[in-house]
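hey so u asked for the seq, here:
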Amino acid sequence: MQSNLLPHALAVEFPELAEKIKELKQNNAHFEKLLHEHDALDTQITQDEMDVKMISDDALHALKQQRARIKDELYRIASAA
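ran it, structure tokens below
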């Protein structure tokens, strides 16, 4: 199973928030923790999609949903800053 492997880095997906993301990463521990979780999930998903690790489609879908929930919260925080 291989999909189009697009970058899911927050600053890439939301370039208009890149400066806020950088500031929040340095000054907001909760944001930094969420960003770290998002990036770790993104790396795991990319590896799974490249068949580096074997994972079921359901498990991969669950990881993508978790990443999306975290990304939504990060976006909400960055937009409000």
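Residues 47 and 53 are 6 Å apart (CA to CA). The helical segments are 10-13, 18-27, 29-49, 57-80.
lmk if thats what u needed
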